[in-house]
Design a protein that fits this description.
654 residues, 18 helices, Rossmann fold, globular, alpha/beta
């Protein structure tokens, strides 16, 4: 084995050990938001205050395309922003003033957007604007707002020039809540290369700033990583027949068709591409995100986006729940960014202590740190948020989360981890590529995002190429087996594997053995003596320690329950056994009243935990055996307002 392969696998081994040891400390169930320190609450969670009679007002304009080419974008943005305003007003407004929204239809088109901006500024005397949605409309609005000293925050305009003057200087009063085109281009180029695609065909509307920006940055990043653009064709926003271009796409034999346009164009191109038998995988940007995206036409495609409703963070799940209760649907990225942009604005106004001095509010925005639905937001020197992007897939009539990518050169988003020292990488031999697939149990938890970050950092240090993938949930054994088999078919130099089923992956490991491909397992092992090494904590000992802490918290007696992820993986089996055996051996007055398995899915685990709480009113504690399990427990405790319950989680973060 070469020094580089051994060095990379060693880093994976150490990183997995460190992560697996980072289970959450024993803790009491979370207090309701109103009982938490104000510094730990998000803008929309601040304590309520009574609204006095004759309360002063502050106007906030919402410029959104409610008609024109992309009306669903406007409706979603408007609704997200209005919900944020409603929440702030329910808690007393901002600085004691009631927030009055003024909604204008800006049509995602320059002239109507400019007219709307002039109207709200000159007639309505607005000093704060949320909008516009589309870059080609937001940029001309920004020129007016900047000249008149009006704060503008676009929720979704990703073109770089929104916040910059023609000579590259940052506009003082203009901000955005979304990441920018170069980052989206990098994300999708890196994703395409990571999937093994080497050729791409680009279709773009040259007259659309957003589309052109994504196309240019995808091409730059894709070719910079060794890919080849085999064709590029333009069209106009009025075109409906793309057959001539799609014939060229088919003839080019491109593996990827990059189409960074809005959903209405994607619907047309996707349907016509399938009629022509085009096999290239369609990819695009956040313009795909709409309730009106034709899931059949876009089937098999991937796109970058600002958030996923499948994100397990409590702030995301609370947002999804509240939005569904208000509007009857799952919020898309446009609604989410409208909500986040409004919270950015109102938080900055509150921090600045003024609704009149927009320069002070702009200064507060520049220093803002906000835990938002789309991620923790801080702003760079160009007023662009620094946060992660999600890659989503359209498949079988639904949109699913695939992975998260952070601004750090395309590295996966993850919690900060302690730095690991590594020897300097040996320089790769000329023309040599060392490819190592890392097959995890999934992407849905922060634990796996942290593992992904460690793997990518190790790959960079040792000059190797990796892919990191896993099934949508830890219950999808067959999907993981298929991924591992596909990875082996590429004859990698080595493989890293975290089996969701210790027996199901044995044939894959034996195939690797026959080919002489080294295997390292991590988190969970496999029933084979072939793996070169295995990285994991002692699950039995760690779970026994959790039992000791549980006994300490509940005074050595009472009823407790367990929510675990599965009965097939080594971690699922050993963590339940370690906890149960210690309770039975050492604490005769503690009774484990139920053990349930939620497949690592936080929603299923929530339902299971709620049923246990309702069936056992004297329950004193819960042990959650992995991240999804403990998130489910915490959700159940919060929803049922169960006070004083001791909750202990394994590899769950804090």
């Amino acid at each position: 084995m070469t020094k580089r392969i051994f060095g990379f696998l060693s880093i994976i081994l150490v990183f997995s050990l460190v992560l697996a040891a980072c289970g959450a400390p024993a803790t009491e169930a979370p207090k309701p938001a109103a009982e938490q320190p104000a510094a730990e609450q998000t803008a929309a969670e601040q304590p309520a205050a009574e609204q006095p009679a004759g309360q002063e007002e502050v106007k906030v304009a919402i410029l959104a395309p409610l008609s024109g080419p992309v009306p669903t974008f406007g409706v979603s943005t408007r609704d997200g922003s209005l919900l944020a305003i409603e929440e702030w007003n329910a808690k007393g407004g901002v600085l004691g003033k009631k927030i009055v929204p003024i909604v204008e239809d800006s049509q995602c088109t320059p002239d109507p957007a400019v007219n709307a901006a002039n109207k709200v500024i000159d007639q309505d005397k607005v000093k704060f604007i949320i909008g516009e949605v589309c870059s080609k409309a937001s940029i001309p609005v920004s020129e007016i707002a900047e000249a008149k000293g009006v704060i503008q925050i676009s929720p979704t305009s990703t073109n770089e020039m929104l916040t910059l003057t023609q000579d590259g200087k940052t506009k003082k009063y203009i901000f955005r809540a979304c990441f920018i085109d170069p980052f989206q281009g990098l994300v999708m180029a890196k994703f395409a290369i990571g999937k093994g695609y080497k050729t791409a065909f680009i279709m773009l509307d040259q007259g659309n700033d957003y589309v052109r920006g994504l196309a240019e940055n995808f091409e730059k990043a894709f070719t910079g990583m060794g890919g080849k653009v085999v064709g590029k064709e333009t069209y106009t926003s009025q075109d409906t027949d793309f057959s001539a271009i799609l014939t060229k796409v088919a003839d080019s034999k491109a593996e990827v068709l990059f189409l960074p346009d809005y959903y209405n164009i994607v619907n047309l191109v996707g349907a016509q591409a399938k009629e022509k038998g085009v096999t290239a995988v369609m990819m695009g940007g956040d313009g795909w995100d709409s309730a009106d995206l034709d899931l059949k036409a876009a089937d098999g495609g991937f796109y970058s986006n600002h958030y996923s409703a499948e994100d397990t963070r409590p702030i995301v799940q609370e947002w999804v729940k509240n939005y569904q209760a208000k509007y009857g649907s799952v919020p898309d990225a446009l609604a989410t960014l409208g909500y986040d942009a409004t919270n950015m604005l109102l938080s900055a106004i509150e921090k600045a202590g003024t609704t009149e001095d927009t320069a002070a509010v702009a200064a507060a925005l520049e220093k803002l740190e906000l835990e938002a639905v789309s991620g923790k937001i801080t702003l760079d020197e160009k007023h662009n948020p620094v946060k992660a992007a999600a890659v989503l897939q359209v498949k079988d009539g639904k949109v699913s989360f695939v992975e998260s990518v952070a601004p750090d050169s395309g590295a996966a988003a993850a919690p900060a981890a302690a730095p690991t020292e590594a020897a300097p990488a040996a320089a790769p031999a000329a023309g040599e590529e060392i490819y190592i697939p890392v097959i995890s149990k999934g992407f849905q938890h922060q634990f796996w995002q942290a593992v992904k970050l460690g793997a990518e950092n190790a790959a960079k240090d040792f000059g190797v190429t990796i892919t990191f993938e896993g099934p949508e949930s830890e219950a999808m054994v067959d999907k993981q087996v298929e991924m591992a088999q596909a990875a082996l078919a590429k004859n990698p130099k080595a493989m890293c594997l975290a089996p969701v089923d210790s027996k199901a992956l044995v044939p894959v490991v034996e195939e690797a053995k026959a080919k002489g491909i080294p295997v390292i397992t991590f988190d969970s092992g496999v029933d084979s003596d072939y793996p070169l090494a295995h990285a994991a904590t002692d699950n039995l000992a760690a779970a026994a320690y959790a039992a000791d802490k549980m006994a300490e918290l509940i005074g050595g007696e009472g009823e407790v329950a367990i929510i675990a992820h599965d009965q097939t993986s080594q971690t699922g089996i050993e963590r339940v056994k370690g906890f149960t055996d210690r309770i039975n051996e050492k604490y005769p007055k503690i009774k484990i009243v139920d053990t349930q398995y939620g497949g690592g899915d936080h929603l299923k685990s929530t339902d299971l935990a709620k049923a246990i709480i309702q069936a056992h009113p004297n329950l004193k504690g819960f042990f959650g055996a992995n991240e999804g399990s403990i998130i489910g427990v915490l959700n159940a405790v919060t929803e049922l307002n169960k006070q004083g319950l001791a909750v202990i989680g394994y590899d769950s973060g804090k």
